[in-house]
Amino acid sequence: MGPPEERDEGWFTSLYAAEYAHIVRYGLRRLADSDASAELAQEVFVVAWRRRGEVPDRSLPWLYGVARRLLANQWRSRRAAPDLLPIAHGDLTRVADTSGADRTVGVADVRAALATLNDLDQEILRLIGWEELTVAEAARVLGCSRATAAVRLHRARRRLADAMSERPVRSRRPLLAATRKDL
């Protein structure tokens, strides 16, 4: 991306064009609707413009870190409002986005098991699995060392596997072959 003095409007436009869709998808996987996700992405890029001298060449993990902190600030400010739907439940009821991975059999079971984990376990698994970051990049997003992120990932995967093994096994019969009483 170059030194800060070269980070003009053209630099920002190319950053925005390259990473906006990634940030929106990041928000979609954590928020209940697409409008909130688009708003989050806009806030992330406002921060990126203001702090353009700090944006590294590999900007996506840095932008994910900004998005994560913005979401954390929003969730903390809303904690006192009891009528809001917690993110874990909103994540379960949200209609899956258009990616093929979200349409595979068993996604609801994985999402339900994921919702039983603490926030840090959920975030490391999402960063590695959904955002396809490396452990080092996830560590940058989380603000910890690579070794710490690797340990967190290992423990989170183990807790997710335990949560998945506790869930009842659902029928493997295809939906089209279901009988009327199954529906």
What does this structure look like?
- The protein is mostly helical.
- The protein contains eight helices and no strands.
- 62% of the residues lie in helices and 0% in strands.
- The longest helix has 21 residues, at 146-166.
- The model is unreliable at 81-105 and 171-183 (pLDDT under 50).
Gist?
With 183 residues, the chain is mostly helical. 62% of the residues lie in helices and 0% in strands.
Biggest sheet layout: none
Helix content: 55-70%
Instruction: Measure the end-to-end span.
Output: 54 Å
Instruction: Count the beta strands.
Output: 0
- Compute the average pLDDT: 78
- Taken in chain order, the helices and strands follow as HHHHHHHH
Overall shape: it is globular
Tag the structure with descriptive keywords.
single chain, 183 residues, mainly alpha, 62% helix, globular
